[in-house]
Amino acid sequence: MESELINEFYLLQQSRANKYEEVLNERIYTPSKKINKKMTSWISKRGVMLMRLEEKLNTSMKHLRKKYLKF
Fold first, then answer.
1. Cα torsion for 26, 29, 32, 34, to the nearest 10°?
2. CA-CA distance, 68 to 61, in Å (whole number)?
3. Which H helix or E strand runs over 25?
4. pTM score of the predicted model
C-alpha cells in the first residue's frame, strides 16, 4: 500500500512538473525567443544601414575634398 502511495505521489509530481514546464515555455521562453529574434534582426538592419550611410558619407567627402580642396 505504501509503495503504491509513493508511486502515485511520484506520478503526481511528474504531471505537475510537465504542466509547469509547458506553462514556462508558453508564457516566458517562446515570447522571449521572439523578442530576441526581433531585436537581433532590428540591430542587424540598423547596423547595415549605418555602415552604408557612413560609406556614402565618406564617398561624398572624398568627392568634395577633390573638388574644392585642391592643393
1. -70
2. 10
3. none
4. 0.57
